[in-house]
Amino acid sequence: MSTVTLYSVSYDIASLILHILGFIIPPANAALTNGNVVTGLAVLVFGVILLAASMLNTILLIWWERKLLGRIMDRRGAMHVGYAGLLQNFADGFKLFRKTTVQPREADALGFFSGPTAYLVTSFLLFGILPISSGWNSGILPLSLLLALAIFSFAPLFIFVSAWSSNNKYSLMGGMRSAAQMIAYEVPLLLAVVAVVIVAGSFDLTTIVYEQQNYWFWGPLFVALIVFVAGMLAEMERIPFDLPEAEAELVEGWNTEYGGMLFAFFMLADYLRALVGSILVVLLFLGGWTMPSWVPGALTTFPLAGIFWFMAKTYIVFGVFVWVRASLPRVRTDQLLRVGWNRLLPLSLLAVFLAATLVTVKCVWPFGCLPSMGT
Amino acid sequence: MATPDSAEEKPRENPVLWVARPMATAARQFAKSLFRPSTIIYPYERLEDPKFRDRVEVASGKPFGVGRVWDNYRGVHSLNIATCISCNLCAFSCPDICIDMVTVAGGDPKHPKKCPQIDYGKCSYCGFCSDACPEGCLTMTTRYELSTPKRSEMIYSPEKLNAVFHSKLPMNPIRLARPDNEDSILLDPPLCIGCNACARDCPTGCITMLDIPKPEAKPGEKLPRRIWKEPVVNDSDCVRCGTCISVCPKECLFWGTRK
Amino acid sequence: MSEMWINMGPQHPMTHGLWNLRVRLDGELIKDVDPEVGYLHRGIEKISEDRHYNEVITLMDRCCYVAGFAWEHLYTIAAERALHITPPERAEYLRVLSDEFQRIASHLMWYAAFVQDIGLMSPFLYGMRDRDLILDLYQSYTGARMTYEYFRVGGVRSDLPPGFTDQARKVLDWLTPRFNEYDQLCLGSDIFHKRCDNLGVLKANDCVAHGVTGPMIRSAGLKRDLRKDRPYSVYRQLDFDVALADSADVTGRYLVRMEEMRQSVRILRQVVDWLDHHPGPVIAEELPRWLGAPYAPVGKEGYLLKRHYPKGVGFSAVEEPHGEAQAYVVNEGGEHPYRVKFRSPVFANISAARQYMVGYRVADIPPIMGSVDVCVGEVDR
After folding, report:
1. Of A37, B27, B231, C193, whose CA is between 20 and 30 Å from B109?
2. What contacts C305, CB < 8 A, 6 or more positions away?
3. Beta-bridge partners for C324
4. Smallest Cα distance from C178 to chain B, Å
């Protein structure tokens, strides 16, 4: 396991910058190389790295979805800008950036502009919390899982605000659906997480990952995984649960009136949330950045192996979401709510019960035993 | 289904495991199109390119071979000015009225040669003009790319259409057989004044003016003021363009079956 | 939320064309609907009065852009009856070949649009991909992919190119297993049944009362197919079944259309075999001069025609992919039809919208309208 951490990297970059500055301006050398200044700049660099990495991954995720969807649909997806269309999303983003932001005359300006902005900002916030690999996180937060889910569930508010303030009937209906759906699926989602927390004995994502060293949780907690993935699909508003923005009847749902950069905000935030959803699945059920012991050591010990495996798993999980999107129709609002309350809620309770049983018996064939660390 | 004796076997699909079946189908398609999806990368690969056509093997397999642009595709016209007889039939037959007969260089200055000019902004590529062309000089080719930033460039002059003819594109091979029982140009003799207009304007020169005997005027009867000639149409050369009918000042020519 | 009117159209992803469905909503519940058409009116019937009999065929392709051949066939039958012309048998078989391929192509287009309406993404591409093979076939013998202008009054324009029947058989072989694949994607998924079962129910007697025809009436269990009931062209000599379902809902219409595609494949195999062994003329021998290739002026208007060709009227009814289309052509002896009138099946089908839409939810509008298979080009003409 390499000892390079996100902190050490940003600290090194910050001190390098300050030393170069001090070399250029000799009188300020002492002040610039002061430990506090370096730490302050390191925090800034840290944030910039997080922002850049999450942006890059989001855009790569869109590319990944377009390519996968294309192949499933017997076509190619983006392929002209850059190698295999890798730069297509940058081109799309640039186009949206150049467009005029049109505000409907009757729209409420405050909500209309603050809704997408807050939606995007809260989605970015999540990346400060999620650990990417051992040492690659912003800090040891004992309740990081809870905090992540709390920030995740901000979204209905902002969606509803922007839908209401666009002053459009389609947007309003989309916003209503979105709020109803997210609230309905919050409960089974959290109960599925509770199952994981019972087994892992901690709300800290890093601890949860290390609890999976003997076996990943997806096997024994398969019911929780199903509930979590279904809930995540609803939270991310992807097919089959994308009815808030069902383009067939609601044009584009709550973002009907948005164009240009504000639409790009929504798009970006949607995929940020999709990325976070995939990351959460990997962290909670697929062992995070760890690999099982039967994998040859050479594959797990190269530099940044943790990040590599983590991202690989994330993209595969997202690939499953794309597969679902490509092959399933959209459900209806009442059916969605009925599935949420009538099916997923009992299933999640079953998952909690199974998790409690698992903790009690400790060892389950064929998975093995829980590690002794934790509670 | 109430059709028990259906010829094609059709297993009725029922839901299995909620969504397992459609997801399996999508995965199968993914595996099939992983290496070569059915799409054609159009500007780089063209179906009318024989090299590409024979080489490509796509996910949807063999029947894709019919995707070639056959030679009888109805694209941009090609016009052979040298063989055009200016019969106007293409312009008459055009349902969109997008063909104008315009003067081309060369030919008799007194009777300038007119050839079709096509406005592709209006053309619907129905092919009636090339069907109507008696000499086979106006045909359709496989060229289908003619986007242009200017509307005026959509109007193809006869010279431009002639250049298409010389660009060696595959020509539409369909030639309609002319019906055997075509009507002929008939004359209503009492009305004719022998003015020579029909013979002058006939694109094929199949009308000759023959002298007719000037009748003796009976006492008290006034002979009509006319030239004592009458047109005679050579049916085997006639292309049935109707130019003579439209130029006749006295409306004495008409279509009919020659006895 | 109080009740509100929503304009679904004229530009809306649900409409598949250019029309407007006004919906009165109470929350998500549909209280009332009011279809408005006319946005795509081009006056085809009036233009036809100023066109030669054959030139009207160019307009028929624009009548319905997904089922051009059905409308060409409809018009040519009516015009031939008005002009007292009988086409040769090979031309009739070529017309049935075109018609049935058109039925498959139209239903594939419907399938693509319909699954898009319920949110299925990839079958859209599958349907369009397989439809493209049929368009390729069309291109090989008519020269165009969508605006064919292939039928003529008294026959068809030209015979098949060499090797066509083999290619057609390949396409049919390719299509047959595809239908099962489509079924797996739709019927095999529980969500599809949740969405489409008992949706947009229009019982048989309501269908009759509103003049609703085509797959909608067959999905209600009423065996009504003009190819069987009033056989035109050579359908009498072909062996096929009428697709039927009894649920009268969206799933039933899906089943009927899928079965119709299978039956069309069955018809096409017979037609292709017949065409292989029966060469012959493709256009009638005894045609009026002005229906042949040249279209020159006639001189004294009508002088010749009144002498040679008697007046007449022609009526035809054709089982179009969307339903029963009818045409009426009045020949007053000129070189243009005196009057042309069409009956569009889709017009009647969407006129009954209030009957099968009220009471469902706003999310049901796209599947229901999708199952009706709206083609606005022929509604407005």
Report:
1. B231
2. C288, C290, C298, C333, C334, C335
3. C319
4. 10
In a domain, A347, yes or no: yes
- Tell if the CB–CB gap between A332 and C120 is shorter than 8 Å: no
Helix (H, G, I), strand (E, B), or coil: what is residue A82?
coil
| A79 domain-assigned | no
Q: How many CB atoms lie within 10 A of CB A326?
A: 27
CB of C13 less than 8 A from some CB of A: yes
Task: State the Cα–Cα distance between residues C76 and C83, nearest whole angstrom.
Answer: 10
Taken in order C180, C181, C185, C188, the sign of the CA dihedral is: positive
A:B CB pairs within 8 Å: 43
Q: Would you call B124 an interface residue with chain A, using a CB distance cutoff of 8 Å?
A: no
Which residues of chain B lie closer than 8 angstroms to C149, CB-CB?
Answer: 126-128
Residue A304 falls inside a structural domain: yes
pLDDT in tens, B181-233: 667 777 877 778 888 888 888 888 888 888 888 777 778 777 777 788 888 88
Cβ–Cβ gap B67/C173 under 8 Å: no
Report the 3 state secondary structure along A7-68.
HHHHHHHHHHHHHHHHHHCHHHHHHHCCHHHHHHHHHHHHHHHHHHHHHHHHHHHHHHHHHH
Query: Is residue A307 domain-resident?
Result: yes
Tell me the sheet residues that pair with B140.
B77
Q: Contacts of residue C296 in chain B, CB cutoff 8 Å?
A: 88-89, 92, 240-243, 245-246
- In the block, residue with structure tokens 């907690």: A221
Q: Which of A239, A249, A250 is opposite residue C121, by nearest beta carbon? A: A239
| Domain count along chain B | 2
pLDDT at C288: 63
- The SS3 assignment for A214 reads coil
Residue of C nearest to B4 (CA): C241
Is the four-CA dihedral A21, A27, A33, A38 of positive or negative sign? negative
Task: Give me the domain span that covers residue A107.
Answer: 99-369
Instruction: Say yes or no for a CB contact (<8 Å) between B21 and C293.
Output: no
B112: its two tokens: 């300038």
Shortest alpha-carbon distance between residue C236 and chain B (Å): 18
Contact status of C184 with chain B (Cβ, < 8 Å): yes
Contact A74 B32 (CB under 8 A): yes
- Asked if A91 contacts A81 with a C-beta cutoff of 8 angstroms, the reply is yes
Q: Which residues contact C98 (CB under 8 A, 6 or more apart)?
A: C69, C72, C73, C138, C142, C148, C150, C151
* The token pair that represents C119 in the structure block: 């949110």
End-to-end CA distance of chain C: 39
Residue C12 placed within a domain: no
> What domain range is B194 assigned to?
184-214+223-256
Q: Which tokens belong to C4?
A: 């509100």
- For chains A and C, count residue pairs whose Cβ atoms are closer than 8 Å: 84
Q: In this structure, what CATH number is given to the domain that contains residue B93?
A: 3.30.70.3270
Q: Is residue C36 part of a domain?
A: no
Task: Using pLDDT thresholds of 50, 70 and 90, give the confidence band for residue C300.
Answer: very low
Please give the C-alpha separations between residue A259 and each of A59, A109, A156, A263, C198, in angstroms, as whole numbers.
19, 14, 20, 5, 38
CA-based nearest distance C329→chain A, Å: 39
Q: Residue C48 — very low, low, confident or very high, per pLDDT cuts 50/70/90? A: confident
C13 lies in a domain?
Answer: no
Are A71 and B37 an interchain contact pair (Cβ–Cβ within 8 Å)? yes
Tell me which residue of A329, A152, A175 sits closest to A255, measured CA to CA. A175
pTM: 0.86
Domain holding C252, by residue range, is: 45-380
Can you say whether the dihedral through the CA atoms of B49, B51, B52, B58 is positive or negative? Answer: positive
Work out the pLDDT band at B54, boundaries 50, 70, 90: low
Note which residues in 105-124 of chain B have CB less than 8 A from chain C: 124
